[in-house]
Amino acid sequence: MNAPHARPKHRRIAALLLAAGRGRRFSAGAPQEQASISKQFHLLAGQPVIRHAAMALLPHVDVLQPVGSDPLLPEALAGLDVLPPVEGGAERHDSVRAGLEALAKLPEPPDVVLVHDGARPCVPAAVITRTLEALETHEGVIPALPVSDTLKKVENGLITGTVSREGLWRAQTPQGFSFPLLRDLHDRHRTALTDDAGLLEAEGHKVAIVMGSEDNIKLTVTEDLMRLERVIEDQKTQPAQATVLLPRVGLGYDVHAFAEGRKLILCGIEIPHEKGLAGHSDADVGIHTLCDAIYGALNEGDIGRHFPPTDEKWRDMDSARFLIHAGELIRSKGGMLVNADLTIICERPKIGPHAKAMCARLAELLKVSPSRISVKATTSERLGFTGREEGIAATAAVSIMVPDSGE
Question: pTM here?
Fold first, then answer.
C-alpha cells in the first residue's frame, strides 16, 4: 500500500477493520428482506458501508487487516489492497484479539495499530491524521467529541436526575495504540469492554483525546443511512479543502499572597515551604496563569469567567480541574497547543529543582508532550511584593493553532 507522505516513515502502521458485528438495532428497523444482512454490508452510495471505511483507512496505513467471517466480506472489499480476512469472535474484544494475532504473524509486525469499526464509513482523513500524530507521544489515542447536550437519567420513562456533561466526550474510531502494548493487554485480559481504550485505562496507561468529527457517524439504526448519504453527497459536491490552522497567542498573569497554614501548590506539584498561597481554590498561581493565557488565546475570557471565585463549589478546588477544562476547550475547537512558556516570579522557594516535574504534570493535564511545556523562574531582585517575599507572581505565554472559521 502507498503510505501518505506526511506521516513518519520509521513507523509501520497497521489497521484492523472490524466486521464481525451483527448490528441488532439496525436489523430490527430494516425491511424484512434486508434484516438478515449485517449493517456493514448494506449499500451506501452504491458501495458496501465497510468498503467506504476501508478506502478511508488505506491511504494512511501500511497494512489493513479485515476481521470477520461473513461470506459477504471478501466480496465487499474485492480489489482493495487488504490482507485476507481473519475470523472474528463472538464479542468485539475477541475480534480485536484475533486481528492482533494475525498482525503479529506478519514478517514485519506493525509498531502502531488503528482499530476501526466497519460501520463508520465516513471517517475524515483529518481525524485519522490527528490520531496518528498523537501516537508519536502517547501509547493510546482516541478521537472523540465533547458532549454538548444536556444528559438526563431516566427510569421507567421518568427523569430521575440530570447528569453533568462536564468532561464527558463521545468516543469514536479509529482508536490508535502501540501495537506491542495492545497485544499484550489483550493476551492478558479477557474482559468484555466496549472499546480498547478501556484496557489501557484499566492498567493505568494514559490515553489521549484528539478531536473527532460529526461526519464520523456510526451506522446504528436505519435512519443513519440517510445521514451518511448526505455526508457522502456533501463530500462529492464540495471541493476538498485542507483545514487551515491559524496561530493564536495568549498571555496570562496572576499573583497570590503567601498565607499561613496552607500547602504550597505550584503547577500541580506540592512544594515544601513554610507558607502556602491564599486563594479561593488551592491558589496554584502557575496553573491559574496558564489557564488565563489559554482562555485569552481562544477569546474565552479569563479563569474567573469559567470558575467564579464567588461560587463555593470551587473553594479549595484542585486547580488541575481548571487546566483540564482549558485543554478540553482547545480540543473542542479542533485546535492544538503548540507550546506554553511559564515564568514564576519569587525569591523563595527555588523553582529549578521542581521545574521538570512541573512540566510533566502540566503536560499530563493538557494531554500534550512535555517538550511543549516550559517552566522557568526568576526573582525581582528583592524589589516589590515578590522581593519582600509577600507572595508569588507568574506570567505565561501560549501558542495555539485553531482551524480558520472563515470569519
Answer: 0.59
